[in-house]
Automatic annotation (TrEMBL):
<keyword id="KW-0413">Isomerase</keyword>
<dbReference type="GO" id="GO:0004750">
    <property type="term" value="F:D-ribulose-phosphate 3-epimerase activity"/>
</dbReference>
<feature type="region of interest" description="Disordered">
    <location>
        <begin position="1"/>
        <end position="21"/>
    </location>
</feature>
<feature type="binding site">
    <location>
        <begin position="164"/>
        <end position="167"/>
    </location>
    <ligand>
        <name>substrate</name>
    </ligand>
</feature>
<feature type="binding site">
    <location>
        <position position="199"/>
    </location>
    <ligand>
        <name>substrate</name>
    </ligand>
</feature>
<keyword id="KW-0170">Cobalt</keyword>
<feature type="binding site">
    <location>
        <position position="30"/>
    </location>
    <ligand>
        <name>substrate</name>
    </ligand>
</feature>
<feature type="binding site">
    <location>
        <position position="57"/>
    </location>
    <ligand>
        <name>a divalent metal cation</name>
    </ligand>
</feature>
<feature type="binding site">
    <location>
        <begin position="219"/>
        <end position="220"/>
    </location>
    <ligand>
        <name>substrate</name>
    </ligand>
</feature>
<keyword id="KW-0862">Zinc</keyword>
<dbReference type="GO" id="GO:0006098">
    <property type="term" value="P:pentose-phosphate shunt"/>
</dbReference>
<dbReference type="InterPro" id="IPR013785">
    <property type="entry name" value="Aldolase_TIM"/>
</dbReference>
<keyword id="KW-0479">Metal-binding</keyword>
<dbReference type="InterPro" id="IPR011060">
    <property type="entry name" value="RibuloseP-bd_barrel"/>
</dbReference>
<dbReference type="GO" id="GO:0046872">
    <property type="term" value="F:metal ion binding"/>
</dbReference>
<feature type="binding site">
    <location>
        <position position="197"/>
    </location>
    <ligand>
        <name>a divalent metal cation</name>
    </ligand>
</feature>
<keyword id="KW-0119">Carbohydrate metabolism</keyword>
Length: 247
């Protein structure tokens, strides 16, 4: 049986290629697991390894228990890569820092739906800064949060872990949500791109893509690979290209 595009494959891997994108999803490297003492070099070697984008995991110790870096750190790393930067703001109060991350050289700024009481206003502020606007939704957050802001969105991030830490287990039942978002985007004609973030590895990348993703964030699968970043990226590409085994 061939699955309908946008539906969740419940009886094993989907057998047809996803209709929303004939090309493989882009790989976005999360810097969360990098060596912070040499962040510039880490960003440069992720770039050389063949990823398509760099994601900065910005954590404030309030919205999530962990703390990471601010815009000045992102700004000094900007010269180490030509790739697009995205700032994933896992912070309680993103509005006062939007302009700083845009000035630091981020092409996309992603806020969490759970932290923005005036989400539409926050998204239009991001766009007014001349950068792309994204919204991330936690595993427990409904897709309904996105429905009324679609026209202000360039990117939607479906979290497949609870944010805060790298190296967590991929929550496979979030594929159903990815497919829901896929259907919402396709039916509305929105150009927003769908990103899946959390637990992406050679075991999970293909299912996330087939559920509806166009961008896959990989942290520990790349930075924690014993064979190095280049090997890790090649393995992820191989996993995405692997033919689905016969039933
Ligand atoms: O947003 C994140 C955590 O809050 C990270 O981007 C994400 O978890 C990537 O790391 P890994 O691939 O190791 O799960």
């Amino acid at each position: 049986m061939v699955d309908e595009p946008g539906s969740v494959s419940r009886g094993g891997p989907r057998r047809s290629a996803p209709s929303w994108s004939l090309k493989e999803p882009e790989l976005v490297a999360s810097v969360l697991g990098a060596d912070y003492a040499r962040l510039g070099d880490e960003v440069a070697s992720l770039t050389d390894a063949g990823v398509d984008r760099i994601q900065w995991d910005i954590m404030d110790g309030r919205f999530v228990p962990n703390m990471t870096f601010g815009p000045d750190v992102v700004a000094v790393c900007r010269q180490h890569s030509h790739l697009p930067f995205e700032a994933h703001l896992m912070v309680q109060d993103p509005d006062p820092m939007l302009a700083r991350f845009a000035a630091a050289g981020c092409e996309t700024i992603i806020v969490h739906a759970e932290t923005c009481p005036h989400l539409l206003r926050t998204l239009s502020t991001i766009r007014d800064l001349g950068v792309e606007a994204g919204v991330a939704v936690n595993p427990s957050t409904s897709v309904d949060f996105l429905r009324h802001v679609l026209d202000q969105l360039d990117q939607i991030v479906v979290m497949t872990v609870n944010p805060g830490f790298g190296g967590q287990k991929y929550i496979a039942r979030m594929e159903e949500k990815v497919s829901e978002v896929r259907a919402l985007v396709d039916h509305s004609g929105s150009p927003a791109r769908i990103e899946v973030d959390g637990g992406i590895s050679t075991d999970t990348a293909r299912a996330a893509w087939y559920a509806g993703a166009e961008l896959l964030v990989a942290g520990s699968a790349v930075l924690g690979h014993s064979g190095g970043k280049r090997t890790a990226v090649a393995e992820l590409h191989r996993a995405l290209a692997r033919p689905v085994p016969a039933p």
